[in-house]
Every structure is written in structure tokens, then in C-alpha cells.
Design brief:
There is one protein chain. The protein is of the alpha/beta class. The protein has one domain: Aldolase class I (TIM Barrel, Alpha-Beta Barrel). The protein is built from 8 helices and 8 strands, in the order βαβαβαβαβαβαββαα. The protein has an 8-stranded parallel barrel, surrounded by 5 helices. α2 packs across α3. It is globular. One of its GO terms (molecular function) is thiamine-phosphate diphosphorylase activity. Pathway: Cofactor biosynthesis; thiamine diphosphate biosynthesis. Keywords: Thiamine biosynthesis, Transferase. It is an enzyme of class 2 (transferase).
Length: 208
């Protein structure tokens, strides 16, 4: 399970506790996704989280390449367009926005929203892709969910690749059973960030 952070879903003290508990209850990857923070604020938050979590849990910085470089995080998660631009070296002159992801020794993730996106990632390379959003979610209230069929098609496309398929969007303990056969893992934000009992919530997913 991947946990995507959102500090607006709980009080600050609880925020750190949620991430800590999640890391000790089986969440292997934390996507630090606090886009509204300044670089210094994001760096400080990263360092605080790093001190509190299980040493085996990876912290993947969402989108912010400068902070990723500063803290030497475990990985970077990129929006699809940004991934393409960097991989194809369209912004190589902008050193703050460039990393050599063709020769990358960190975790590299990419957000995708269509089969077309996935095909383009397959032409390049990544460790995992997020495919969203599968079910209805408050984060995307006005957008129609992609549904299970696109997940099945994506899973088929990625069968012979080394890219893991991570399902995202509206995934709950009650619907996860319908998708686990078509993805390598799931990503969760709201259900965990707002949970009062992290261990219980994670166990309810029962995806092992």
C-alpha cells in the first residue's frame, strides 16, 4: 500500500502520527504530496517525517525535484507531462527541474490517467505508475471515474514489463477486492489520513 499525504485532512500533530503509524503497520511507500508548501517548508516536513517512520519505509517526493535533490529522498513521483519533458530532456537547461531519470538509481513513479499515457511510459521507463481515478472520489468530484476495465487493460499492457501498476482513486475496504487481481498495489489518501485507527483501517483492506 502507498500512502499519499494530505495534511489538510487532519490536525498537524495527528498528521505526523498517521504517517508514523502507517509506516509501522505495513505501508512501504509514503508519497509526500504537499504542493502548497514552500521548498523550505517541504524540506523541514520531510526531515520530521523521516525521523518518525520505520526505517524500511520509503519517502517519495511528489513533483518537487529541488527538494528531492536537497534531501536525497528515496524517490520522486512525477506528473505525466513533467515525466515526458524530463525523460525527453526538453528542460535539461533548467537544472532545478532536471534529473537524469534515464540513469536513475532511485524510485521513479509517474501519474497516468489513460492507456495512451501508459503506452508512452512504456516507451521510456519507470518503477511504477499510478492509474487514476478508478472509483468516484471527493478529490475528483466532477470527473467521471475510469472504472475497472481500464485497470484490466493497463494490467495486460504491463504484464511483460518491470513497471508496477498502482491503482488510485476512491479505493476503500469494500471495493478493493474487485481490483486486486488487476494491479500490483493500491494507493490511498483520504481513508488513511482521516482515520482514527490506522492499524484497523489498513487491516480492513486485507490486500495481502
Amino acid at each position: 500500500m502507498y500512502l499519499i499525504t494530505n495534511r489538510h485532512l487532519c490536525k498537524y500533530d495527528r498528521y505526523i502520527e498517521v504517517i508514523k503509524e502507517a509506516s509501522y503497520c505495513g505501508v512501504k511507500n509514503i508519497i509526500l504530496r504537499e504542493k502548497d508548501l514552500s521548498n523550505d517548508e517541504l524540506e523541514n516536513l520531510y526531515l520530521k517525517i523521516k525521523k518518525n517512520i520505520n526505517k524500511d519505509t520509503k519517502i517519495i517526493i511528489n513533483s518537487n525535484i529541488e527538494v528531492f535533490k536537497r534531501v536525497d529522498a528515496d524517490g520522486i513521483h512525477l506528473p505525466f507531462d513533467k515525466f515526458i519533458d524530463i525523460y525527453d530532456e526538453k528542460n535539461k537547461k533548467d537544472t532545478n527541474e532536471y534529473i537524469d531519470i534515464k540513469n536513475f538509481n532511485k524510485i521513479l513513479g509517474v501519474s497516468t490517467h489513460s492507456i495512451k499515457d501508459i503506452v508512452e511510459v512504456l516507451k521510456r521507463n519507470a518503477d511504477y505508475i499510478f492509474l487514476s481515478h478508478i472509483y468516484e472520489t471527493k478529490c475528483k468530484e466532477n470527473l467521471k471515474p475510469k472504472g475497472i476495465e481500464i485497470l484490466k487493460e493497463a494490467n495486460s499492457l504491463l504484464t511483460n514489463s518491470n513497471i508496477n501498476l498502482i491503482a488510485l482513486g476512491g479505493i476503500t475496504p469494500s471495493n478493493v477486492k474487485y481490483i486486486v487481481d488487476y494491479c500490483d498495489d493500491i494507493a490511498v489518501m483520504s481513508n488513511l489520513m482521516s482515520s482514527k485507527n490506522i492499524k484497523k483501517t489498513i487491516n480492513e483492506y486485507n490486500i495481502d
